[in-house]
Amino acid sequence: MLRMASSFPEEVLEHVFSFIYDDKDRNAISMVCKSWYEIERWCRRRIFVGNCYAVSPPMVIRRFPEVRSVELKGKPHFADFNLVPEGWGGYVYPWIAAMATAYPWLEEIRLKRMVVTDEALELIAKSFKNFKVLVLSSCEGFSTDGLAAIAANCRNLKELDLRESEVDDLSGHWLSHFPDSYTSLVSLNISCLGSEVSFSALERLVGRCPNLRTLRLNRAVPLDRLANILCRAPQLVELGTGTYSAELQPDVFSSLAGAFSGCKELRSLSGFWDAVPGYLPAIYPICPSLTSLNLSYATIQSTDLTKLVSQCQSLQRLWVLDYIEDIGLEALAAFCKDLRELRVFPSEPFAQEPNVSLTEQGLVSVSEGCPKLHSVLYFCRQMTNDALATIARNRPNMTRFRLCIIEPRAPDYITLQPLDDGFGAIVEHCKDLQRLSMAGLLTDRVFEHIGNHAKKLEMLSVAFAGDSDLGLHHVLSGCENLRKLEIRDCPFGDKALLVNAAKLETMRSLWMSSCSVSFGACKLLGQKIPRLNVEVMDERGPPGSRPESCPVEKLYIYRTVAGPRFDMPGFVWTMDEDSALRLS
Amino acid sequence: MGRRGSASSSSSLESSNYPALSSRSSLYQHNRDLSTDLRLGLSIATSSQGNPSTPSVSESDWPPIKPFLKETLAAEENECNSATFFVKVYMEGIPIGRKLDLLAHDGYHNLIRTLDHMFNTNYLLRAEMDGEHSEQYHVLTYEDKEGDWLMVGDVPWEMFLSSVRRLKITRADI
């Protein structure tokens, strides 16, 4: 057998491996034998590091010397909701610095929730001659000066996507740094930027890039400039408008409608800030071919939303505010039979009383009418076990189910019972469920259901739920495929964690904030399991200055082969053997 | 919420064995207060502008929506709150007029009250009073888009807002 494995020349094996892209498959290949490990590591071109602290840049570079594409993720998911204090970490500079020398032919960098500086961007612009793709998703720490460096130097840039990043927006002038000779743009997403870019520079850029497929503009681009831009890029597949509001003028409307009609390939729309209903009909001609519609910033009411979605028979993804109401969701269920993903966001998240008529019924309608629906994010103010059970029975193909009820610990509003059975039905019927976020009044029982049934679950988010450690224990001991667990404001303490300590090494990460995990337990975990970083965040001061039984504010545990990190701010402590000694 | 069923008692993870954990009832109480805090916002609203029951948008961590959406929605709300429509108001016999933000009022009643304070007098929306008292009262009129002077109060408030150009207060006995 061994002889057979090595009887293929390396070149043949390498050629075969070049058809394998999936990380899991590549990892499996690398474990067959030493020679396959060697061949595979030299031809792996794409690296994904789900937690930038799980491994160090030198370790990655040592094993994979010929990488062309890197994807890194930094802060934990709850950073999106202000739960991770400023300065926690996730700095990309050390990675860029290491890769600048090791990977001169690097083409793609994709970062999520990382701190990126102008220095890092300048280094990227300088170091990688064939740089093609930069995606900065929910990143921060850089300014438009860094963008100017990228624009000016990356001759072969195809993609610049700043989705939802926080950019120090000094001016829109950076866009003008793309030289006149630059024509390779395929995708540009500047929707998160505040400043106006030069419209003429934008129009010229769009006009000279024949391969442009994706253009997501920022709010500062006024509606009356949109037609001009569209006319220069009729091949666009994805468009994000700027502000979608202007005084109703027939000539502006007709040029806009004409421009949209000319974009025969357009399949995805977003933007729509300040949308005025009067201009919506401009997109009606292309609605039937739209597959993706993001109206999360469009404060238009239910009647106009209903009219709009009713024309989008090919729609696969809809993101919308709860202005759509149950009635709009019923129309969605009736007309959009190809719908796969629905996200409904709250228009008044901080109001106590509902401002719109959006209830559990809307979601039930969509679950009934849309057979391909498998991904849901739904904010509402009321829910029942019956509704959840109906949704579960309707959609056993559900893979991502995230529910948020605005009021924490809200019970079934009809029976006043906890929503345990409803979510139990979800995990029981939806056997391929990968991601779950729960809401409402929940006891330990729901965790028992999850532990028993959610065997494919990879990510679970829990808030204001459970009664005791038993809840956490059910999840950690039952969910075989669990990779990410994030918990806030639950009465979970030490015991479940300590009993299931070994499980933590099989997961990417565990976040717990405002729970009841004691400092002593954190120290113990950190000491017992060397390949876990147990990070305690406490803005009250060193945890050692309080009794060991005192609960920590925030806890972030992740597996790592890189050991403890040293770039932590003053309010983060890693529990390992050394620090435990220092702190006691 | 009752006690858990006996099926789960085979595990030794009963919270009562672990004094480090607070008892369930006090934890519930604590969490109840926390949810009140969440409703009222995690920061103390010190400014008098803006809705006092809206928490400081950038600091709140519930419900879990991303910063960009939060900011956009907050901005929408503020825009609605900060739109203004100032019109000139003259009192007959007084050459210097005043300016009044009509959008800061939600109807005729509020408008009259403000004008009362501004000009320190009494008003009549319609000349309903009988003759003896008419010299004590003034009449509120407005100029519309077409230049005509009309009595304030005949049309619905929203319609009034869309046609009013300026206001004038005259004596009732014209």
UniProtKB/TrEMBL annotation, chain A:
Domain of life where this protein originates: Eukaryota
Annotated ranges, domain F-box: 8-49
The keyword Secreted appears for this protein: no
This protein's record includes keyword rRNA-binding: no
One Pfam match: Transp_inhibit
Keywords in alphabetical order: Auxin signaling pathway
Alphabetized SMART domains for the sequence: FBOX, LRR_CC
Protein name: F-box domain-containing protein
Organism expressing this protein natively: Hevea brasiliensis (Para rubber tree)
TrEMBL record, chain B:
Domain PB1: 84-174
Gene Ontology annotations for the cellular component aspect, listed alphabetically: nucleus
Primary subcellular site in the record, as a coarse category: nucleus
PROSITE patterns (UniProt xref): PB1
Highest taxon in the source lineage: Eukaryota
UniProt KW Iron-sulfur keyword: no
GO biological process: auxin-activated signaling pathway; regulation of DNA-templated transcription
Subunit-structure text: Homodimers and heterodimers.
Similarity-based family: Belongs to the Aux/IAA family.
Name the UniProt record assigns to this protein: Auxin-responsive protein
